[in-house]
Amino acid sequence: MKNKFLIFVLFLMSVQSFSQEKYLTKEGFVSFFSHTLVEDIKADNFQVLSVIDKKTGEIEIQLLMKSFMFKKALMQEHFNESYIESHKYPKATFKGFIANFNELESTNTTVEIIGILSVHGKEKEIKTTAKLLILKDQINISGNFMADVADFDINIPTVVINNIAKTIKVSFDLQHKPYK
Amino acid sequence: MKTLKIKIVFILLTISIIGLFYVIYLYNKPFIDIENTKAKIEATAQKIINDFQADEHLANKIYVDNLILVKGEIANISFNNGISTITLRDSKGLTSIICQMLPEANLNVLKLKKNDQIIIKGVCTGYLLDIIMVRCILTNDNFDEK
Questions:
Q1: Whole-prediction pTM value?
Q2: The CATH number of the domain where A41 resides is what?
Q3: Torsion angle, CA of A122/A45/B80/A135, rounded to 10 degrees?
């Protein structure tokens, strides 16, 4: 684990010595929303780590499952302990890239993002459109996509099967600043 | 015979009413009361950062899900979507502790500035590039430096 961290730090430092190509946020926003006739469940995570490479359009996102805030304590408890098993799989990650990043015609446009989403130890390719805004010292990416609960091997007890949607809407809003 | 039946119906009814109230109670169970719950661990920001850098797995076991009182120096304060976030500094490295404050702490957060020494109470959720804490408040609880 320590090695991984060191590699990551070295990676960031090496990038820094080149130029300001990496943009980063540690306070990105990701939320998910489940809608059923029984109830709506929403959870917000304001502590999302995201790094984007301004040269290549590669993007890497990490978040802690336990940083998702629910409206009800019981929902949060069930989410972490029974469904997502946060003690075993504490993080969710996304590794991908913005398609045709070097051929973008505008700095305020809709782009396609393709990558691998890893949740609950399971990986799934995600393709989604997102809004991209490139400013002088900021890169913003926002959008949403639908994810199937079944793709991530998440066990939902029959008692609450009607309370949780089969597909979950995942929204994101990441405002990156140059890495200093 | 009839009275026995009435008794059974009465008992069953009582049990189901209690059960129903229990379910409602569970469903509406409140979040941990940060202000009035004693912190399980007291540590300086530097100590927590050192622990996570030394062994993330072990540090997860010690800190994650626990109410922690952490003392440290403010590196940054930010407001985003009505959420205030205080970053506690590490004296040497890149790692810090990012504390997502509860909305009720916002007014007090406004009075703070960079480099202030503060004590924050909140729940640790783990480690990315930094250590993350949520449901944080500013506190005047006594801090015993060990």
A1: 0.85
A2: 2.40.128.110
A3: 10
